[in-house]
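Exercise 7.
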Amino acid sequence: MTNKKLLFRFVAASAIALLLTGIAGCNGLFNQNPLNLASNTQKQPSAAVFISRQAPVMVSMPVDPNRFEVLNGGVKLSKLKKSLLDNTGLDYKKDVQPWLGNEITASVTTDDIDKDSANGKQPGYLTVLTTKDEEKSREFIELLFSKRVLSGTSLVVEQYKGVKLISDIPQTEEIKKPLAATVVGDNFVLFANDAKILREAINNVQAPGLSLISLDNYQQAIKQLGSNQAVSFLNLPSVAKWQGLNLSSPTYTTQLISLAAKSKGLLAETSFGANSPIPLAESSEKVKALSYIPATSGLVISGKDLSNLDNSNLALLWQQTDSAISSESGENIASQITKPLTNLEKRWGINLKEDIFSWVKGEYAIALLPNSENRSENNKPEWIFVAEKSSTTASNISHLDEIASNNGLTVSSISLNEQTISAWTKLTTTGNKASDLKIQAKVLGTHTSKDNYEIFTSSIETMDEAINNKENFFKDNRNFQDSIAAIPQSNQGYVYVDWEKSQDFIESQLPILKLLEIVGKPFIDKLQSFTISSYDSNSELLKAGVFFLLND
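Solution. The predicted structure, written as tokens, is:
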């Protein structure tokens, strides 16, 4: 595996881990004030005026200064304090809390401060804190740098466009990293790892066309946010350059991620901004195919029209992501995620796109059910696939039966509670002598027609649950209903994951997720399920959300 790919996986895992640990901390505050944030009705982070439109990453979070030190759930927001206050003898409650406002914004402003690759790359970092007391915040900066000088730094003071900038250069091992800071106007305190970053931030304010707020994709995405939300914004080409990834001719150039508390969990939303018109997906709203999915299902996917999957807006995003993170050897993340489908194609001798997806133009639902002892000898999950019929369904089903027969399977009809089903079975013999030979039939799959739907399952028992279930339907599952209540009903379908039932299977397919159990344990311990959906998209914006249903 290449260093590039290892780096990407580390960055991806770290980003997810930070999201999860942040969520866990927020979740611990539910019983008081959602997210325990100060009242703040604005949608756009006020510090966005300092951030370059070319900056790879910006993260902004409204906070309550009185609870900044330690949040419930064991999540400590200590990195910022550590970087500022280490070896200074200063105290957060005494020296920072009295002036700290209700918004903190951090940004990677550039992948290399001096743009000189000959001396290596040094990213630029900018942190912007709002202040409720300009005088006290100025006093803090003066005190902070005086303490750092005593610990072994040389001080540099300059005036830039009417703003006083203070920076230092470490001279001893006691303080290893340089720091620059300033107070801008009555509301903002800026910290950076180089005075050049502060000068650029001031330029961005004075020439609005340079800042993030001048970016159309950013403005479109930010308009859809509610107030008082944590927000991350990524300039995807800049992120790719920073991480050394290949992102040539991208369809999507920006991504905005927001986090908001809901009554029973958390909703993380993301919007991808496109640089050219993208196809619009068909709304699926209430999918009746879910009526055949048992309530015991651990993973459920529903929507409309699999025939156009390759040309959808989600497919364009998938292709861009896959292209960016592929290694030189040709191995890629996409191949690992789709490995179960690839194995299924090999085992059944079919091409999913041509033999199945091509004729599914209406509703569909796919589900994985936890394996039980009476169903199978192995631990593989059972599955169900429900597809709305079309004018070509009958001939398509005949083609699948033909493929099964050509692969040595027997296609036979079985009556199941007065419902005729077709079973694909593999005949085997046991015994060493002719007189002891016994023929055994192993069912590899079944299918039948019910109302306006064609139903496929991995076993007769699962088919029985699908067509003879009178009470326990997945669509009535309380966790599912609570989850979709947080998501707009006009959407392109759902991916629902019951974490307890599906955790082992998902982690077996994506081992990197096991790392998140460690770094995101406070959150994982509370997670019941998560539901993914895309909605509110237009020709320039792809929007999706993930709702995390959490235990009380």
